[in-house]
Each structure stands twice: as C-alpha cells, then as structure tokens.
Amino acid sequence: SQTIHQWPATLVQPVGSPLSLECTVEGTSNPNLYWYRQAAGRGLQLLFYSVGIGQISSEVPQNLSASRPQDRQFILSSKKLLLSDSGFYLCAWSRQIGGYTFGSGTRLTVV
Amino acid sequence: QKEVEQNSGPLSVPEGAIASLNCTYSDRGSQSFFWYRQYSGKSPELIMSIYSNGDKEDGRFTAQLNKASQYVSLLIRDSQPSDSATYLCAVAASGGSYIPTFGRGTSLIVHP
Questions:
Q1: Could you give the CA distance from residue B88 to residue B61 in angstroms, rounded to a whole number?
Q2: Cα A45 from Cα B88, distance rounded (Å)
Q3: Are B91 and B25 in contact (CB under 8 A)?
Q4: Cα(B33)–Cα(B27) distance, rounded to whole angstroms?
Q5: A4 touches A101 (CB < 8 A)
Q6: Across the strands, what pairs with B25?
Q7: B-chain residues within 8 Å CB-CB of A50?
Q8: Cβ-proximal residues to A16 (8 Å cutoff; 6+ apart), any chain
Q9: CA of A93: which chain B residue's CA is closest?
Q10: Which tens digit of pLDDT belongs to each residue from B18-69?
C-alpha cells in the first residue's frame, strides 16, 4: 500500500530564517506530487506540483521554492521566511487521474 | 477562472439525520469530482470520488453528480457526531495536469 510521510509536524521559525519541509511517498512510482498551503480559515492554495524528477510547476509567485531530487521525494524551501508564510503546509500525491492522498501536514508559525 | 462554490456553514444536523452538502462548479469541462473530509487541525482525507452523472454510494455516504446543472452533492445518512468536520469539494477538468480546484469547504456539526 502507498504511504506518504511529511515532516516536521510543527515548526516555529523566526522571520528571515530558512525553511525546508520534506515529503516522501512509498509504495508507488512516478507519482504526481503537490505542495499546498492552508491559511487559517481559508481554502487550499496550490503552491507547486511535479509530474516527474526535476519537473516543478509553480502556481503562486512568492519566496518559496520546491525541488524533486528523487522520484518519491518532494521538498519545499525558502531562503528567508516572511510572517505571511505562516500556515498549514500539506504535501499530497496522486496518480494522473484520481483523488489526492495528503500527508499529515506541517503547521508553520513564523514569528 | 475555475470556481468551486460551497456554503461555508456551519451546517448543523441532529444525530441520526441526513446531512446534505452541496457544491457548484463553473468549468463545464470538469470530469472528476471529489469529496474530502477534514477534521480540525488535521489534513484532508479523500472519502468519495465520482466521474459520471448519477449517484454513487459507499456505506453511509452518497455522492450525487449532475453535470448539466454543474452540481455535485454529498449525502451522509445516519449522521454521527464523529462526522463533524469540514467537507471539501474538489473538481478537476479532463486533460492537462488534472489538478483539481478546491472549494473552501462546508463545516458540518452533528449534535447528539
């Protein structure tokens, strides 16, 4: 069976510090991978998606970046966090057609 | 701009009743429809997917799709307090990346 791992679960970071969130998928190959952010009381905002190694599409221009160094690994990064980067970050995977399986999420608070 | 609209609620129903959650979408080319359940502080969980007009039943859940009216709904029979959560509707078009557009969700409260 397929599983998705996302860590850390919670993170408190000062403004201007770097960020690295990691997501890995097990039990499937060549998954579509996604990073979403959910701000308090708001909907899901697609940040990045990837259909293969090294292939990253950005949906929202901002100070975040994503990388896919391996087939089942997806990393979300920032060089300098802003207060507005606070939120609930969700990694997800899917086959080409079908619903998502989300990771457990990372709650990021920028202080 | 593809839009998926849901009433934010909260929708409050008594235990044992049928909860009806509704979703409308703007893109007539939409082919895939999903319902996710999200408990407070947790990540969304896929509970239903539907691809053709009509009803699809899974346990206490029934998804209903009407493409002509651009409308998809989720019925929860015999609602339980454990069903209290936010329900997200997601709609994807055919072709391209199949990335769905999410609604903002409807909060459901099932009271004993």
A1: 14
A2: 13
A3: yes
A4: 12
A5: yes
A6: B4
A7: none
A8: A80, A81
A9: B99
A10: 999 999 999 998 999 999 999 999 999 999 999 999 999 999 999 999 999 9
DSSP symbol at A75? E
Length of chain B: 112
Do you know the residue count of chain A? 111
Interface test with A, best of B43, B58, B94, B104 (most A CBs within 10 A): B43
SS3 track for A84-107: HHCEEEEEEEECCCCCCEECCCEE
- Give the CB-side neighbour count of residue B42, counting CA atoms within 13 A: 14
Q: Does B7 touch chain A (CB under 8 A)?
A: no
Q: B78 to each of B58, B60, B75, B110, how far by Cα in Å?
A: 13, 7, 10, 10
* H or E segment to which residue B98 belongs: none
Of A46, A49, A102, the CB nearest to B43: A102
Burial class from Cβ neighbours inside 10 Å (0-12, 13-18, 19+) for residue A100 reads buried
CB atoms B32 and A42 under 8 Å: no
In this structure, the number of other CB atoms found within 10 A of the CB of residue B11 comes to 17
Contact predicate B74/B21, CB 8 Å: yes
Could you identify the residue written with the tokens 């952010």?
A: A37
The predicted-structure confidence for B80-104, as pLDDT tens digits, reads as follows 999 999 999 999 986 556 788 999 9
